[in-house]
Model the fold of this input.
Amino acid sequence: MPANILNLPCYKILGITENEHDYHIDVETQEAPTSCPHCQSSNLVGFGRREQRVKDLPMHGRRVGLCIDTRRYRCRNCGKTFYEALPGIDEKRLMTKRLAQWMGKQAIKRTFAGIAEEVGCTEFIVRAVFSDYVNGLEKTIRFETPKWMGIDEIHLIKPRGVIANVQNNTIVELLPNRNKDTVVRFLHHLEGKDRIQHVAMDMWTPCRDAVRAVIPQAEIVVDKFHVVRMANDAMERVRKRLRESLTPKQRRGLMHDRSVLLKRERDLNDKERLNLDGWTKNYPELGEAYRLKERFFGIYDAESPDEAQAKFIQWQKSIPSGIADAFADIERAWGNWTMPILNYFNHPVTNAYTESLNSLIRVMNRLGRGYSFEALRAKILFAEGAHKHKRSRPKFERKERKQAEPESVMMYGLPGHFKNFEMGDSFARMAPKPAPEPKPHIQKSTASEKPEKNYGADISTLIRMIEAGNL
Done:
C-alpha cells in the first residue's frame, strides 16, 4: 500500500476498507504533541483515544472518509486534558481544509445538490462552505473602479442592481436592490470613486439621486436603449387600442403586425413593406404611430445635444392629437431627464451589453433549483476564468469641436521687435507668452512592480459559460 495514497504527509495510514461507493481509511497523526497547550509543560501522559470521522476529497469516483485515531493526553503539571491537534482539518467542520477549498471552487460552477451527493454530505453544509469561500474571495479580490460606470437592473429572483464597467463590458458588483440607500452605501464605500467620469443608467430617480449625492463630479447619461424603447411602447399602445375596435376578420388582416411594426423601416423586407403599406392606408392612426416611432429613433442620429433637442421639439410638434396620449410618457420623461438624455450625444455610454445576461441568468437560476441571491451573486462575480485582467480599448468618442482661437494683432513699440498679443487682453497683461517648459521624463514602472488589475467578470465569457452549462 503506498504511504502517500492520501497525499497528506502529516498522517500515517493504518488500513483501508471500501465498498461500492466509499473508501474508509484509518489514519493517525505522524507526530505526537510535545507540550501542553495550556501551560506549555512537556510532562504529558496518555489519557485514552477516540475515533473522529472526517470527510476528504472524493477519490476514484468514491466518497472518502478518514477515521482518525485521535490521542488524548493529560498534563501532569496543570492537570488539564486535551486531544492532539489534527493538521489539515477545517476548524469549523469535520472535513479536510483541501476538501472545503475544493467544494468552494466547485460550487461556483456546479449545483450544491450535485456536490453534496459526490462528497456525501448535506446540501446545507455545501451552502455553508460556499459562503465561507466567498467571504474569503471578497477579502482578496478587488475589482478596478470603472471610469465609465453603468447602473442597471437584472432579474435574480426579483429586480436587483448591477454595477458594470462600461468600457470593459464587465460586471463589478450586484446589489440586493436598486433603492437609493443601497446605491448610496455602495458608492460611499467604493475605493477611487472620485475617478468616475460618467454613469450610464435608465430613468430611475433613486439611482440618479444617489449618484448626485455621492459622486457629484460624474456626468449622468441616460441609456439610449431605455429611451427609444418608450417609442416602441407608445406605438404598442396605439396598436392594441386599434385591435380592440376591430372585428375578428379585420384582426386576421393584421396578422404578425406586432413584429413588423417593432422593426425599423430600414430593416423591413419587401413582403413586410407591402403589408405595412396596406395597414397604414387602411388604418391611418397606425401609420401615424409608426412614423412617429421612426422619427423618434431618428433623433439619435443627431451629432450634438443642441441638434438632438431641436429634433425632439420638432418631433413633439408633429404628434397628432388623436394619439398624443400614447406618446405622453416620452414627452414627460424627456422633460424630466433632458440633460442626462442629451449627455448621450457627447458621451455615447450604454448598458445594452448587460441586458443580454438577463434571460441566461434566469436559466441558471432554474437549473440551480432556486439559488439564493448571495449564491447567484457569487457565481456571477467570482466565476473562475471569467475575470478580465487586460483592459479593453476605450469606446470611440465623438470628436470635440475646437473653439475658434482669438485673433492676434501685431503691436509696435517694443525696441527692435514685433510682438503678438491676443485681442481682448488689457495692456497691463501685454507680455510675450513664455515658451512651454519641457515635460519631465517619467520612467514607466514594469509589470512586476504593480499587481495585475482585475476589471471584473467579463459579460461575454459569462454568457459562453452559462450557455455551455459551466456556470
Observations:
- DSSP finds 17 helices and 13 strands in the chain.
